[in-house]
């Protein structure tokens, strides 16, 4: 029992400082643009996820057409319907999740 507790204390939590893409079916160009846009917005508005999501959505609507939806936050689950080749789910700065999808 004591050995198990000592092992747990020695474990370190891994925090990713780079974007960790969990799922995407976007083409390469769109995915890179969406990742860069998401990271920039989340770094700029790190204390206001709602504003970061709004900035990401507005820019995606301008660049890739309307009907984009964005969720930015920690500790949430999701299930969405989306257009094929138009979803991105990634983590940034540890446990900050970002989901972008297009559904018209």
Automatic annotation (TrEMBL):
GO BP annotations listed: microtubule-based process
Pfam families with a match to the protein in the record: Dynein_light
SUPFAM superfamilies: DLC (SSF54648)
Gene3D superfamilies reported for this sequence: Protein Inhibitor Of Neuronal Nitric Oxide Synthase (3.30.740.10)
UniProt xrefs under InterPro entries: DLC_sf, Dynein_light_chain_typ-1/2
Subcellular location: Cytoplasm, Cytoskeleton, Cilium axoneme
GO cellular component terms, semicolon-separated: axoneme; dynein complex; microtubule
Main location as per UniProt: cytoplasm
Keywords from the named record: Cell projection, Cilium, Cytoplasm, Cytoskeleton, Dynein, Microtubule, Motor protein
Subunit structure: Consists of at least two heavy chains and a number of intermediate and light chains.
Family affiliation: Belongs to the dynein light chain family.
Function: Force generating protein of respiratory cilia. Produces force towards the minus ends of microtubules. Dynein has ATPase activity.
Protein's name according to its UniProt entry: Dynein light chain
């Amino acid at each position: 029992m004591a050995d198990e507790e000592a092992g747990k204390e020695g474990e370190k939590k891994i925090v990713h400082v780079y974007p960790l893409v969990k799922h995407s079916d976007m083409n390469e160009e769109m995915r890179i643009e969406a990742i860069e846009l998401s990271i920039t917005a989340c770094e700029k508005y790190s204390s206001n996820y709602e504003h970061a999501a709004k900035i990401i959505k507005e820019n995606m609507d301008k660049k890739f057409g309307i009907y984009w939806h964005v969720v930015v936050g920690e500790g949430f689950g999701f299930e969405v319907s989306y257009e094929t080749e138009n979803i991105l789910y990634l983590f940034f700065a540890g446990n900050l999740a970002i989901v972008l999808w297009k559904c018209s």
